[in-house]
Amino acid sequence: MTGPSDPRSDRLISATLTFLRRTLKVSGAMFYWIDPGLETSNDAIIDMPGDLVDRYRAEMRLFDPLLVSRLVKSGTKVGLLDREASSIAPEDFARYRAFLASYDVVDNIDLLFFADGVAYAGVSLARRSGEPPLPQDAETLEAIRDYLEFTLQTHARLRAMRLKDRLAGEAGLTKREIDVVELICAGASNQDIAELLGLRLQTVKSYVREIFQKMGCDSRVALVARVTRLQLP
After folding, report:
1. What is the three-class DSSP state of 130?
2. pTM over 0.85
């Protein structure tokens, strides 16, 4: 149910970065997704200097006190560069500071977003010399983070995550059954599903019968309607 890129969701990410850049008066901002293994993938990058992001991933991420896996494991939702410095060796922090300075970045903040206790995304903000200091008080930054976390609940990716959780938790569907439901909702026939998932046609028919029983539906139309209701807040 992730489907193709959703323009409204894309605009939501863009609006999130614009809001942060204007509110905190920084130029560099990046939005990233966090997978279950706590690895990140960039979604949108605005005005990050040079090859900073590529070099960071290739050479410097392990020296970053704001490394996402560190922040998540420590329960940190607002990561301040200097405050988190104690999580790594002093010489590693000095090395990381020098790396940032080579791109004229003098401070960095990360905000992490959670759903049902699971980190799913974050924003990294880079302050350059000449830009106003980033706020360091937790209350202000946590209020901004909480507001953005709430608005991001409408993103297609978050809606899909919630729907999968509900299909598994409320309806008791297995992961493979959820895959079949996704394809049914996309308009796929049983034959289409068999080809796409590499299953025998008879196996797909068995899955569909089991899904109908678990979901209390007697047709594809009824199933799509039930899934649509589950997507509502």
Report:
1. coil
2. no
Structure tokens at 24: 């905190």
Q: How far apart, in whole angstroms, are the C-alpha atoms of residue 143 and residue 66? A: 19
List strand residue ranges (DSSP E) for the chain, in order. Answer: 28-34, 40-46, 78-80, 105-115, 118-128
Name the DSSP letter for residue 218: S
82 sits in which H/E element? none
How much of the chain is in helix, strand and coil states, percent to nearest 5?
Answer: 55, 15, 30
Residue type at position 225: A
Q: Are strands 28-34 and 78-80 parallel, antiparallel or unpaired?
A: unpaired
How many Å apart are CA 223 and CA 2, to the nearest integer?
Answer: 18
Dihedral pair phi/psi, residue 62, rounded to 5°:
-70, -15
Burial of 167 (0-12, 13-18, 19+ CB in 10 A): buried
Q: Tens place of pLDDT for every residue, the chain, 233 residues?
A: 444 457 888 899 999 999 999 999 999 999 999 998 999 999 999 999 889 999 999 999 999 999 999 999 999 999 999 999 999 999 999 999 999 999 999 999 999 999 888 999 999 999 999 999 999 888 899 999 999 999 998 898 888 888 888 899 888 999 999 999 999 998 999 999 999 999 999 999 999 999 999 999 999 999 999 998 887 65
